[in-house]
TrEMBL record:
Gene3D superfamilies: Ribonuclease Inhibitor. Residues 50-87 form the Leucine-rich repeat-containing N-terminal plant-type domain. It is found in: Cell envelope; Membrane. Residues 1-39 form the signal peptide. Keywords: Leucine-rich repeat, Membrane, Repeat, Signal. InterPro entries: Leu-rich_rpt (IPR001611), LRR_dom_sf (IPR032675), LRR_N_plant-typ (IPR013210), PGIP (IPR051848). Belongs to the polygalacturonase-inhibiting protein family. The keyword Metal-binding does not apply. It holds the Pfam family LRR_8. GO terms for cellular component: membrane. SUPFAM superfamilies: L domain-like. This is Leucine-rich repeat-containing N-terminal plant-type domain-containing protein. The keyword Signal applies. It comes from Panicum hallii var. hallii.
Length: 362
């Protein structure tokens, strides 16, 4: 797993000084343990590939040697640099000149600024995970050089200042399984090339400024479990009919401008579906005809133009914890199992009645 800590700021002399608050104390212990592991491990198991080391130093230089990279020094083996993880085996270290870097994580640091150094990162040819998280100073477009990372399985650039399009070249990352570009300033359409990725099972493009339609074959090759978040954009058009064949576990299309029928996302055969959020769109379909899977735990279809009534089977869902159909055009008596939910979950409909709403009139 990628470490989720950051190093303290060095002083002008390069020495690390800080009061021992609890987070700093924990970090100090981790640093001491890492140093002890370095001291006792054979040299062949400590050092990363010389080419990867040079690439990492180029990444560091591109960010102006920010304090995040304080551990990236000559006296610490590069496989132990903060945010860097090498492969677990060292059997080929002698032949290749060191272990390959498989993960690079830069996160939760406002001192790291500038564009994504694509050319330097692309030199990490064994990279499987690349993560930029909570790095507000990261800017510019996603560089095309990242398409050369043929082994990349997980790409996260989230909560940054990255802008520009979700470029079509991402469709060249054939090993990609997870793509998270959420909470950025990305614009334009979702490229259809993402649908061609044979292993992609999780996409999060939420909280951007994307427009246009959802590619109809998105996640069509996801396999038994698919996760999709496109919320808080300006997407338009309909929910693709092709989504009927996608085995979703979670899907969030909320806060867009989608229209038409979204019933393709439901059905008794969707045994893995646990969460659906379609709120704040302009969807219109008959809810009374929906079949809800038994494992459904969360459903939010509020602020649409959905008609019909709440299906009786909804009251029998034993794992349902959140349910919101407010601000629609629903009518009829609520199933008895709905009495445990708050009134706000059903407000502003055409003529819903029954607990927790007032009783239906005879």
């Amino acid at each position: 797993m990628i470490m989720n800590q950051r190093l303290p700021m060095p002083d002008m002399d390069g020495c690390v000084t800080f009061p021992l608050t609890r987070p700093h104390a924990v970090l100090l212990v981790l640093m001491l343990l890492a140093a002890a592991a370095v001291a006792t491990a054979p040299a062949s198991k400590q050092q990363c590939h010389s080419g990867d080391r040079a690439a990492l130093l180029a990444v560091k230089a591109s960010f102006g040697n920010a304090s995040y990279f304080v551990s990236w020094t000559a006296d610490i083996p590069c496989c132990h640099w903060f945010g860097v993880r090498c492969d677990a085996t060292s059997s080929s270290a002698t032949a290749t000149g060191g272990r390959r870097v498989v993960s690079l994580a830069i996160m939760r640091d406002a001192g790291v600024s500038g564009p994504v150094p694509g050319a330097a990162i692309a030199r990490l040819t064994g990279l499987q995970e690349l993560l930029f998280l909570h790095v507000p100073g990261l800017s510019g477009a996603i560089p095309p050089a990242l398409a050369r990372l043929s082994a990349l399985t997980d790409l996260t650039i989230s909560r940054t200042g990255v802008s520009g399009p979700v470029s079509a070249f991402l469709g060249e990352l054939r090993a990609l399984r997870s793509l998270d570009l959420s909470f950025n300033a990305l614009t334009g359409a979702i490229p259809a090339s993402l649908a061609a990725l044979p292993r992609l099972a999780s996409i999060n493009l939420g909280r951007n400024r994307l427009t246009g339609a959802i590619p109809p074959l998105l996640l069509s090759k996801a396999g038994p479990e698919a996760f999709l978040t496109l919320s808080h954009n300006s997407l338009s058009g309909t929910v693709p009919a092709e989504f009927a064949a996608v085995s979703f576990v979670q899907v969030d299309l909320s806060r867009n401008a989608l229209t038409g029928d979204a019933s393709v996302l439901f059905g008794g055969g969707r045994t893995l579906l646990v969460a659906v959020n379609l709120s704040r769109n302009a969807l219109s379909f008959d809810m009374s005809r929906l079949e809800f899977p038994e494992r459904l735990a969360s459903l939010d279809v509020s602020h649409n133009a959905i008609r019909g009534g709440v299906p009786a089977a909804a009251g029998n869902l034993s794992q349902l914890m959140f349910f919101n159909v407010s601000y629609n055009q629903l009518c009829g008596e609520l199933p008895s199992g709905m009495a445990s939910f708050e009134v706000y979950s059903f407000r502003h409909n055409k003529c819903l009645c029954g607990a927790p709403l007032p009783a239906c009139q005879a």
